[in-house]
Amino acid sequence: xxxxxxxxxxxxxxxxxxxxxxxxxxxxxxxxxxxxxxxxxxxxxxxxxxxxxxxxxxxxxxxxxxxxxxxxxxxxxxxxxxxxxxxxxxxxxxxxxxxxxxxxxxxxxxxxxxxxxxxxxxxxxxxxxxxxxxxxxxxxxxxxxxxxxxxxxxxxxxxxxxxxxxxxxxxxxxxxxxxxxxxxxxxxxxxxxxxxxxxxxxxxxxxxxxxxxxxxxxxxxxxxxxxxxxxxxxxxxxxxxxxxxxxxxxxxxxxxxxxxxxxxxxxxxxxxxxxxxxxxxxxxxxxxxxxxxxxxxxxxxxxxxxx
Length: 307
Ligand SMILES: [Zn+2]
Description:
Function: Reversible hydration of carbon dioxide.
Largest sheet: 13 strands, mixed
Bound molecules: zinc ion
CATH architecture: Roll
Keywords: Cell membrane, Disulfide bond, Glycoprotein, GPI-anchor, Lipoprotein, Lyase, Membrane, Metal-binding, Signal, Transmembrane, Transmembrane helix, Zinc
Structural class: alpha+beta
Radius of gyration: 21 Å
Order of helices and strands: HHEEEEEEEEEEHEHEEEEHEH
Number of strands: 16
Number of helices: 6
Subcellular location: Cell membrane
CATH superfamily: Alpha carbonic anhydrase
Transmembrane segments: 284-303
Distance between the termini: 87 Å
Family: Belongs to the alpha-carbonic anhydrase family.
């Protein structure tokens, strides 16, 4: 009987110390605060241990071009709205009026925008959830949409293709991106968890690259990247990043988790592909390969040699 006592004791302690639904990022885990980090999210919700989880690392040479991945139609993305930005203890989230929709882009239906939120690193360091050929960008924007026939995310998540998330990477730029001033200026008012403030006039268009720069993207099927980790998401990751200055990126690290510690490294580690295929739109990756081709031709013609 003796060997059984320890596991039973540990199991009962485990139940006492963790509450269902409690989860945290790895950056929040300390010896004093042993919260459920990403490797234990399946304790909070068994979906998190599923086969088709997100985020993933995209290996570009293993992606397949899919001609059906045509440009998106963005409807009412330019609509200016008054939003509320909230620190919910895991991220900052902005609810979006359900009037902005996306279609095309190889999606099976029209999807309407519900909310957007971000994932970031520490003081502008690596912070995106998805990675491209192992590269982690400083931040990632998720614009969450649901099929237009649904009225709430919970219902949409019961449909395997109920949710479409548009993901955008950020890159460091030398100058500030003034289109982000409303969001970045609002952050100082919502440093504490469960606080919110108004964004007086904002549009989705102002947050993302111009439409002609959104034709190159990756597509795969996965999940929410936070518990419940529901596998009901059609993922789109755009190749062209959004520029933000180092100062702008740093402001996100001034936000606080509920325990008062800096809200940093708010990303889930990449998950196994488990045989999934990642597709790319016709124009993805060509940006990089055409530059290489031009350089090769220039070298062959001797154009790169000084006279
Ligand atoms: Zn997200």
